Amino acid sequence: MKKDTSHWSARTKAVHAGTRRSQYNEVSEAIFMTQGFVYDTAEAAEQRFLALGDDEFIYARYGNPTVAMFEERIAALEGAEDAFATASGMAAVNGAMMSMLKAGDHVVSAKALFGSCLYIIEEILGRYGVETTFVDGTDLEQWKAAIRPDTKAVFFESVSNPTLEVVDLKAVAELAHAVGALVVVDNVFATPVFSKAVEQGADVIVYSTTKHIDGQGRALGGVVLGSKEFIRGTLEPYMKHTGAAMSPFTAWIMLKGLETLDLRVKAQAATAKAIAEALKGHPKLERVSYPGLPSHPQYDLCMSQMGAGGTMVAYEIKGGRDAAFRFMNALQVCIISNNLGDAKTIITHPFTTTHQRLPQEQKDHLGITTGLIRMSAGLEDSQDLINDVLQALEQA
User: DSSP readout, 190-203?
Assistant: First the structure.
């Protein structure tokens, strides 16, 4: 029997929403490690292919009980009608955009994008005849000028990677909806914990569940959230025929991640703020960027849109690449990697890794300098992290 979860708090939804139990009434969600399902009769098989009943499945590429639990749970947490889980975050971005667009359509996108997102928007969509206009995501006048009567969708990161600019989701959504365009938001840095994207006007929300939701470095995953009409009518046919479905084992990992998501992300955000405050004005830094600091240009927007500054801190080390590398190599607690949203604090040098392939002109425009460090706060003791960063800065 399905329970009404609508009145539950987010933390309770993250633990219980969407739960399915087998005849054994297990406590932990079951992993249905199967690629297909058996039908009692030929007639039953025919009927299932004609129309799926409640809690019926055909093939793992189309759906699976463990995956369905994850989809229902994260949809309840986000406040969306439905969700489709994918093999990775980039599969989610690609599926969301490709399923809704065709040759001749027009998209408006923020310039500040993760490299793979930029490749999809600029290269893949362009290859199939979709026109894209790029804007400074923080400049509403540019959005107004770029959105046309024939614009089909807008796309942006609600908080940009890696420079932590905050886009006014509600204002952009109002501009897009005025011409009937869909609002697609990559919401990874906001996290489902701080997200209010649905009530602020997002039509389609995309997450890499690798970040924060798993949050422990174990598995790749992604999810697209939106209305039932979009998820099942537009997205699902594209995804099930192109094959980017999440595996049952990965879905089980993500379910376990959701159970502790609220606790982890709030602790990480508190640590990120403490680190940012400790680094303010440091003589070896050109700047410190954290949306939860009043000095951030979009601080007020961030507080109204998310209610917290998030788990990421960016800072620029004086002396460029060499100084940045000396700093990174001197760290004792923080690890060097290119992921984020993990239990371990991760340091990334975007200029030479995640955003390496961006043209220099675009790096300059976005503020991705040779001294820029992206820091994803983990679950270690905040003072240990502050001490580690400060001692490494002395060697930069």
Answer: THHHH--TTTTT-S
- What is the spatial distance between Cα 187 and Cα 224, in angstroms, rounded to a whole number? 10
Q: Supply the pTM of this predicted model.
A: 0.95
Q: Do 114 and 211 touch, CB atoms closer than 8 A?
A: no
Q: Where are the beta strands (DSSP E) in the chain?
A: 82-86, 106-110, 131-135, 151-157, 182-186, 204-208, 222-226, 285-289, 312-317, 335-336, 346-348, 372-376
Q: Is 48 exposed, middle or buried (0-12, 13-18, 19+ CB in 10 A)?
A: middle
**What is the rounded distance in angstroms from the CA atom of residue 312 to the CA atom of residue 70?**
25
DSSP letters for 81-128: SEEEEESSHHHHHHHHHHHH--TT-EEEEES---HHHHIIIIIIHHHT
Q: What is the pLDDT of residue 115?
A: 85
CA distances from 26 to 56, 144, 297 (A): 20, 53, 49
- If DSSP codes are grouped into helix, strand and coil, which group holds residue 4? coil
The pLDDT value recorded for residue 191 is 98
Q: Before 162, cis peptide (omega within 30)?
A: yes
The per-residue pLDDT for 1 is: 60
- Over residues 9-59, the pLDDT tens digits come to 989 999 999 898 888 889 999 999 999 999 999 999 999 999 988 889 999
Residue 193 has pLDDT above 80, yes or no: yes
Please state, in angstroms and rounded to a whole number, the distance separating the CA atoms of residues 283 and 393.
Answer: 10
Least confident of 12-21, 156-165, 264-273: 12-21
